[in-house]
Specification:
Layout (H helix, E strand, L loop, with lengths): L2 E4 L2 E2 L5 H14 L2 E8 L4 E8 L1 H18 L15 E9 L4 H19 L3 E5 L10 H4 L3 H8 L21 E5 L4 E7 L4 H11 L9 E8 L4 E8 L7 H14 L4 E7 L4 H11 L11 H4 L9
Parallel strand pairs: 5-7, 6-7
Antiparallel strand pairs: 1-4, 1-5, 2-4, 2-5, 3-4, 8-10, 8-11, 9-10
Helix pairs in contact: 1-2, 2-3, 6-7
Length: 302
């Protein structure tokens, strides 16, 4: 049986009761809910769940039902760009599952979300219907107001659903992609221009590091700014490499780095690779990690 991971981002990170209702809906659908990561500054929550295509689809529809019921984008504020109550829903192939299975599921989910909830849906990444829609940043440019304005153009009609945003739930973006790591680096300054400049320097699209997407985000409730990153290919750029680069660029700005954080789940190989590089280990491989050689998690040391 093919196993698919789904990592939807909802535009709510401050109301525990709404986050719990969304998480409970996914659990009740039969999907295996692995993680719920909420950020009040971003006002955003990332859920991670897995299952077969049918089970994951049930989880997505259950999540949309709760999110559309409880989240009103006209009342929403937060540091992270967004266009929808359920802002983005990626499907990720695990193990031997082919990407084609996730593309098919993305289209099924998009059609059903539009039909049930009257929410327009754009397909992105591997499921995109046009090159201009492949990159999430292009769809989300200008956030909901910007996308709503573009939807009046025939070239920017949604792939499914009405040609105007839902009154409160906005627009949904659904697609298929490879695994990525959501990773943030927090800077000891409240100057957003510093975070924006550093993001541009490390972002692949603007000449930076391969496999890196980045934004500068203000977190006024924390009193600092953040370089918010997606590491889309950890083999091309490790967590250690991108963290080191952000530290270096921050130093050039005269700014210290407070800390960094992973949002949601991260592959173990990404952490072992980072440790190996930071420690300058030679000839190291995952075959030297004791826990990887043990048959069950009960035997793990940490």
């Amino acid at each position: 049986m093919s196993t698919i991971e789904c990592v939807p981002n909802i535009s709510e990170g401050r109301r525990p009761e709404v986050i719990a209702a969304c998480a409970d809906a996914v659990r009740a659908s039969g999907a295996a809910l692995l993680n719920v990561s909420a950020d009040p500054s971003h006002n955003r929550t990332v859920l991670t769940f897995t299952g077969s295509a049918d089970v994951v689809l049930a989880g997505v529809l259950a999540l949309f039902a709760e999110a559309v019921r409880h989240i009103d984008l006209t009342q929403h504020t937060g540091g992270h760009p967004r266009v929808g109550a359920v802002d983005v829903t990626p499907f990720v192939p695990l193990g031997t599952t082919p990407m084609s299975a996730c593309i098919t599921l993305a289209r099924r989910a998009a059609a059903e979300v539009a039909r049930r909830f009257d929410v327009p849906v754009f397909l992105y990444e591997e499921a995109a219907s046009a090159p201009a829609r492949r990159d999430l940043a292009d769809i989300r440019r200008g956030q909901l107001d910007g996308l709503a304005a573009r939807m009046t153009d025939a070239a920017w009609q949604p792939d499914f659903g009405p040609a105007r945003p839902h009154p409160t739930a906005g627009v949904a973006v659904i697609g298929a992609r490879r695994p990525l790591i959501a990773y943030n680096v927090n800077l000891a300054t409240d100057r957003l221009d510093v975070a924006v400049r550093i993001a541009a320097l490390v972002r692949e699209r603007t000449g930076g590091m391969p496999g890196i997407k980045a934004l500068g985000i203000a977190l006024p409730d924390r009193g600092h700014v953040q370089v918010s990153l997606n590491v889309t290919d950890v083999r091309a750029t490790s967590l250690y490499a991108v963290f080191t680069r952000v530290v270096e660029e921050a130093q050039r700005e005269g700014v210290a780095v407070i800390d960094s954080e992973v949002v949601g789940l991260v592959p173990a190989a990404a952490l072992t690779a980072t440790a190996a590089r930071a420690l300058r280990l030679t000839g190291f491989s995952d075959a030297q990690v004791l826990e990887y050689l043990l048959p069950t998690p009960e035997g793990w040391l940490l």
